[in-house]
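Lecture 7 notes: from sequence to structure.

We start with a single chain of 344 residues. Read the sequence below before looking at the structure.
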Amino acid sequence: MANDSPKPVPSSAAADDLDAMLARALGKPLPAAGPTEVPMAEEAVPEEVPESAQRCGFVAIVGKPNVGKSTLLNALVGQKISITSRKAQTTRHRITGYRTQGTDQFVFVDTPGFQTRHGNALNRSLNKTVLGAVTDVDLILFVVEAGRFNLADAKVLDLLPKNIPVILLANKFDLVHRRGELAPWLRSMQERHAFAEFVPMSAKNLRDIGRLFDICGKYLPQQPWMHEPDELTDRSERFMAAEMVREKLFRLTGDELPYTSTVVVDKFELDGAMRRVAATIVVEREGHKGMVIGEKGEKLKRIGTEARQELEKLWDCKVFLELWVKVRSGWADDDARVRSFGYE
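Now the structure, written as tokens:
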């Protein structure tokens, strides 16, 4: 849990002239877009860091659906632990990732995008997860697309506590062609909330990620680390198996398949160096089942193959993956079934 020590006083936002704030953020040209693949965390961590020198804190990543939160988390952790796709509402769980750098240990909390369109049981569960994640952290990264802000962004911003520093993270900045036009946008954003910092960046640019660590580090309270330096997440391999199948399901079915489809792991076994996984893809209608299976089972086979390859890369071992598809009508609006499928 985050401690009650005083938060550092931000140096950049409230008192400064906004033009100066923008100039400081954009004073140096941003580097060209870096690699899009998330690298493994490789930097050396000191073997022993005295507790008196350690800093550790919680950093929540929030924003509307599809602004790049999961991509950002994966880059910050240095390994893929949160699935991504172009389909909205891909992230459905509170995913926690750890990164230890020097004397600092960051506990990053990725959240589902706040749901405003449907009030079913699944979306109520997702929104409860978002609200729970932002109330007891040391720092909040409010992720928006650079130069853009709409009603969905505003609803998320309204949820943020007033007593926790918030960094305005303008993601996808590499797609902004006229950066001079960002000053009026930033001025309007600062009128909405007294942001502690403004960080224009791309979550796919490794040098931008390094810069973000430097910015976030000063908000961590001085306290002992909560996790071992080489730990990356609190999620189990069983959970990751279900998530990887769900990612491939969404990526390969596109907008045809409703987002309410989910994946349940029925069996997870260690067999020597191999992992054996049996999972069920749950859909709401018979027609959706046909979309997932595809002609002669080719779509389901491809989902399984790509998920298996991703898991083998993640775990560095052989994986045997079996998939089935079942129809459970109305599950997303059934509180009990939503809980039974692992949603908080």
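The chain has a mean pLDDT of 78. Keep this in mind for problem set 3.
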